[in-house]
Amino acid sequence: MVSVALVGLGDIGRGAHLPALLRSPGVRLVAVADPVAAHRSAAASLVSDKVAVGSSLDDALAAGPDGVVLATPPWATPELAIAALRAGRFVLAEKPVATSVAAASVYLGLTDDERARLQIGLTYRHDPAIARLKSWIDDGVLGGQLLVRAHVYDEARMAGDAEHLERMRRTLAHGTPVVHEGAHVFDWLAHLLGPGLAVDDAWALRTDDDLPAPNLTGARLSHPGGHQVLVEFGWLTDALPRCELTFLGPRGLATLDGATFALRLSTAAGSENVEFPGDRSTRDFDLQVDRFTALIRGDTDRPDPDLAAGLAALALAEQVAEQGVTA
């Protein structure tokens, strides 16, 4: 077993990372930490009394973990990741790796050894639906050049939930939805189509004047393989459109449900529905922990996904955000 500490006990830390670490037979959780007392209290009720509960990364490191999972906001992640790596630990850092390319420049000072110990939490890359979709594309099931549409809408405005609204407003102040949600989507597209996506044009819309930044944004992108990509991202409207990705080629249409990752393939031969066991979040966070523990144990010498993938997704998201605001 490997020993792991979790830093960041907000919704994603407490709701997804912590259960995955507790479920893993290869992990011994030794510490959890968060500067917010209410978060620490909520997490403490979920772990054994043998798990140290602290308020900082230093507290977590004091427990002597082999690895550290950072479920922290992207404006805090770079400093914490670098500190943990330089303390000799392996790190799994939530996406995006920073709020901007400029903020991510601090990673350039990492040594090769430190970069080799840093896995990026592009969690849903691990899903078997992505692997199946890639096989359809690579095997030519859909045909040649593709029209890809990605509609990623999440975080509806919840009437009466002032805490959620304030948290999302705070996140929005550090970047439009494409910066946060685009990290996943642009990573999937690079994995499925290959690198080289370029932004042709973009747009942004602020649906309420009191929001700190546009809450709807999108772009048209082109790929050197001839594929065309249309993306949309949105938060904080009372109702949201369907969240899905479609891949349309001359021989078929593949649809990925954004909530469940159920797949549907339609071709001249008929239609096929593909679903995978369990819910998407559980299986993907479990798979992510498996890859992280394999990295710590030395079963692999390459983090998957690595820092380069995280930086590439961030750079593309930032281009969309900047062009959308200036359009």
Automatic annotation (TrEMBL):
Protein name: Gfo/Idh/MocA family oxidoreductase
SUPFAM superfamilies given in the database record: Glyceraldehyde-3-phosphate dehydrogenase-like, C-terminal domain, NAD(P)-binding Rossmann-fold domains
InterPro entries xref list: Gfo/Idh/MocA-like_OxRdtase_N (IPR000683), Gfo/Idh/MocA_Oxidoreductases (IPR051450), NAD(P)-bd_dom_sf (IPR036291)
High-level lineage: Bacteria, Bacillati, Actinomycetota, Actinomycetes, Jiangellales
Alphabetized GO MF terms: nucleotide binding
Pfam families with a match to the protein in the record: GFO_IDH_MocA
Domain named Gfo/Idh/MocA-like oxidoreductase N-terminal: residues: 3-120
